[in-house]
Specification:
The complex is a heterodimer of chains A (about 240) and B (about 475). Chain A is of the alpha+beta class. Chain A has one domain: Ribosomal Protein S5, domain 2 (2-Layer Sandwich). In chain A, helix 1 crosses helix 2. The longest helix of chain A is centred in the C-terminal third of the chain and has 27 residues. By secondary structure, chain B is an alpha+beta fold. Chain B contains 13 helices and 14 strands. In chain B, the strands form four sheets. In chain B, strands 1, 2, 3, 4, 5 and 6 form a six-stranded mixed β-sheet that branches. Classes of the chains: A alpha+beta (about 240), B alpha+beta (about 475). At the A-B interface, strand 1, strand 2, strand 3, strand 5 and helix 3 of A face helix 1, strand 3, strand 6 and helix 13 of B. Chain B: It holds the Pfam family RNase_PH.
Amino acid sequence: MEVDRADGRNPNQLRPLACSCSILHRAHGSASWSQGDTKVLAAVYGPKAGTKKNENPEKASIEVIWKPRTGQIGKPEKEYEIILKRTLQSICILTINPNTTTSVIIQVVHDDGALLPCAINAACAALVDAGIPMKHLAVAICCCSAESGYCILDPTKLEEQKMKGFAYLVFPNSILSVLPEGSSLVQGEPMEHGIITSVTHGAMSVDDYFHCLERGRAASAKLSDFLRRSLQSKLPGDLSKAE
Amino acid sequence: MDTRLANTWRLTVNEKRFIETALSSGIRIDGRNPFEYRKLSIKFGREDGSSEVQLGQTHIMGFVTGQLVQPYRDRPNEGTLSIFTEFSPMADPSFETGRPSESAVELGRIVDRGLRESRAVDTESLCVLAGKLVWAIRIDLHILDNGGNLVDAANIAALASLLTFRRPECSLGGEDDLEVIVHPPEEREPLPLIIHHLPIAVTFGFFSSESLLVIDPTHHEEAVMVGKMTATLNANGDVCAIQKPGGEGVLQSVIMQCLRLASRMASDITKKIKDAVETYNTERALRKIKRHPTSITLDGSVNLKEKLNEPSGHNVVNELSRKHLEKPRLASAENASSPGNNGEGESKSSNFGRSSRRDGATSNFVGGAASWDPYSRGVDSDFLKASLASRGTLTPKKKQQDPTGERKPNESKPEESPGDVIPTTSAMDVSETGVHKGGEKTLKDAVKPKHKRKKKAFSSTADAS
């Protein structure tokens, strides 16, 4: 049973990915990530002195600013900021630079579905570009479940609106492409199979959700691959950042 | 408070002195002449009315959107134009969110004055129903990278996006002609704005020594200069606005010299903007033509994305035939596509005006992504190669092998301008799918070979790269 997608992809197929780093000059780290037509620009300013009032000064804190394409900043943008902040907090090593604030600024260039996953991926790439210490990277993916119980990956905006429900899932980026036997398991499952963040919209059954999780995890391996390769060219001594 | 002081950037005394001394010998720290602009690049995004301008290290994005609103009471026949500038914290660590700073407000005002007061944008044509409904055009300028001279770059971004913006066509209907029908882009081609002239802002920086002035100051020079002046002129030599907010006093003769220089710069920059917009318009027209397949897809799925629309025959024919004379590369793409696009062996120029192309409306073409999306039907391989190649390879990484079958074009920004034709592995991907022949569908398409590959790659989890 094939689900027909408007652009002819099959349900497991992601849109073309593109990632480029170090595109801005003033920012300490910057990256642009695009999945199909959705394009997001992320910039990172490295640890600045001081933390905000409600933050814990014994740890580093991360501040996320989300800039939509047009219009005022409203509730959806604030929600994205919070989700992004919590996700990034779990992957950065916060004990290294206490009492500092790292700012991550996201600029939406074009939104064609799966905006938040695109932004998370861009933010990760920008953090690496800035040299912020992290435990591991994160890859994000969007899965929707259709009425027929089918799960499709990386929907476009129209597909998102038509679907019964969709979920944004963030998985840790695996260090290895193939997990060797006996790699560190946490409660019988490799660490790479954990979920960092999951945000769902709409209603879907429990089975559908697990189905989405599996598909998402499989696809995240491909995404990790891509992310690793695009960041690999940044060898030490390779770049000289002005300022 | 301490933290904010700790985070501000200050120029050291040595740097300041170095810049000034070098300038007195006519040398600038980036090697330019005092009266030379940095490299300007104008690119456009996927949608109409979005532009990306890079002036040296300064990077600005402009988006134009339109909405139907009630007009102001004292101007019932005119549309409105509003400019919003976002000094994103991305651009400079000293920019903060929240209330716009002084310089942000000043920038917005300068760009606004140049466009509004000089009547560059024709607001009367934006009126739909006098006194009831007019178009409100909103320009959003996002400052992404502060490399100095934000005003000029922001102005160029605003102009570039205004020139490429298209608003939907409205007509009056219903009883008494009082009901306004907004035609979606699929039905009727959206219209460009009427822009009479292009006001270009040129910024000068003055330094403490007499008659030392530079054009297009960089970020460091801005920290050193003691006064600045922005002159907004158009290519006809009209002065639209001058802004000299305080600072060091300057001789009248110097001001006159500045204005003369500015008019020269303005004509240069106007030409660059117009060239970039022309290229974009050609690409856009080509894209619209591309999206007209003659044969319907096999699965007959309704096009969920924006439907194809028929370009208004005459304009496109004229535009394209002119382009063919000027640009041989585009002609080759056209040549390759016309047999595919249209099963009958007709000549190019008569293709475009045909109403029979309407039958392609239900195809499942992707909207703007047709130029590089491998999954869209009817995309010609030559055109695809050309457009993919034009992405440029700004990232050092080049993905030569694509085991997962995903397409990963190297790009840093969406580029509409054509580049050299370089064969890439992604083109190889496309040729394998076999769906890019344009109109004709074959059994191969029914089988969807590329999906098979993808499934195979997917199922093998041991696909270590």
